[in-house]
Amino acid sequence: MSYQTEFRHFKYFLALAEDLHFRKASERLFISQPGLSRQIKQMEEALGVNLFERHNRKVKLTKAGEYMQRELINNFQRLADIISHAKLLNDGVDGNLKLGYVGSAMQRVIPDLLLKFKEEHKNVLFDINEMDNNKQITALLKQEIDVGFVRMERVPRGLNILPLFEDTFSLVLPADHKVDESTFIGLSQFKDEPFILFDSSYSQSYYEKVMQIFDDAGFAPIISHNTVNASSIFRLIENNFGVSIVPTSLKLGFDMKIKFIELDKIPQRTTLKLVWNSVNTNPLLENFLNIAEEVNF
Amino acid sequence: MSYQTEFRHFKYFLALAEDLHFRKASERLFISQPGLSRQIKQMEEALGVNLFERHNRKVKLTKAGEYMQRELINNFQRLADIISHAKLLNDGVDGNLKLGYVGSAMQRVIPDLLLKFKEEHKNVLFDINEMDNNKQITALLKQEIDVGFVRMERVPRGLNILPLFEDTFSLVLPADHKVDESTFIGLSQFKDEPFILFDSSYSQSYYEKVMQIFDDAGFAPIISHNTVNASSIFRLIENNFGVSIVPTSLKLGFDMKIKFIELDKIPQRTTLKLVWNSVNTNPLLENFLNIAEEVNF
DNA sequence: CAGTTTGATAACTCATAGTTATGAATCCCT
DNA sequence: AGGGATTCATAACTATGAGTTATCAAACTG
Question: How far is the CA of A284 from the C1' of D27 (A)?
Fold first, then answer.
């Protein structure tokens, strides 16, 4: 082997692949044009791959070159992440972990998980933000958060998913509503009452699942309000604006004048799921996932 | 910025991180010990990360160093994959794609998918091998195959999953069996007949799902044979060794003296899923997944 | 305490990245 | 057509810094 590809080569390659113009690219790299020419040539020889077609006075990427460009950008981004995480470790921060979650995850799952995690990792900084399902997905793709807690069936490619906790649905009524556990027969008792539900923007698949419940019960609900968080739903119920159907675990942690009737006879369940980006290199992610897999809810 | 990290630095770092001994590592790299010392020092300065603790005459990795080592090995492996794929593209091979599949995928899904794929990618070499669910998972993790077609609920971390086609189950009987579509009432009619089933090693979750069917029907089956492929199950049924329950799509493509009764009344379904490794850089994988997502079975 | 082994420092040399100068080919105007 | 401009490639030169040898200080070993 004669020459050896170095970082420099890849850097130059990416610049030229963008400009497709030796002189311009060389100026942007603060080197001379012949210098760039030679380095690119060297790189092509060393890898044994023709990256550019030089016909006439036009430069274009070959198929292999296009592929390289796409993948290298990707790869270098990861490398940059690795280095910046290493820097954090170096500076004594054991690291930080950014979480997004849908409100209903805060009642049961998240507290348990964080407690368990803190046991093993004292100096970890957490960044915890409530955000709806779709916001989390976008944030995960942009790597603005490391993990999300969502209620949805499928996620875009590139994201991984781990089911955490399966929950039944519950009917939520004002505390003084005439129907209670003993007099509850079926949902159709409520076909004339207004419902307050999570907005379909919260999660399309969650919304469809709830609609399926009504469908199975044989009526279309009167929807009086759409909202995006549990406490406002509960507040509205408390004040007799209507009733609702929500994940059962929301029962915990609210002190309001409302009552829950668990719909454990219907087949629908909602599963809280952990989602993360497969290219995330945060060193704590691996640990977090291990703990999440161990814990049984 | 003074110095710039180059490939060389990472190569040296990995060598030293293994040996934890400057002289030994330097010999292995065919450079002198002071040369190595200086390059490592430069790298630490350039990155702003202390990679090694040098106390007494012992060298050990810092936390950041350990993390770096782990991640860099990973990252370089990917880079090597990228280059080798680029080489393939360069040599005119549009690429090759290695598939694993469970037998029951060959009847419907795979032929359609491959046909569609071939339309857009003429010069692609396929490597198609029947293998059971678990073999596929191992092969995917080792990147011995690019995509797998499996019937299982969950896969290890690092693998991604895409549901393709939901299938009902069917009861399979010898062609001359006294029960047929019109006289079939329920599974319990078969509680005294021997069943031939896929072995549980085929896929634990698939096995459990089938057992659930028997559970719902209120009896435990007499299992006369376990086997791992469809044609041997059918051959046994043909010769009156028993009956079976299999995915309905296996109906196609076999010419045997057997008959199918679709169990579309029971809730159980089996979903054929596509699985791939999230770090796979095969340039065709992306295309293949796009086509798989478009096609509706 | 002599002998050995460790990594670091200093001064040198030599390979090669990057330079300037130039050339060949193509385009683009009158 | 033909002069001028623009493209990338080639050749010869320069100088940066990777890798060298020589040496040191510190810590283990017996």
Answer: 37
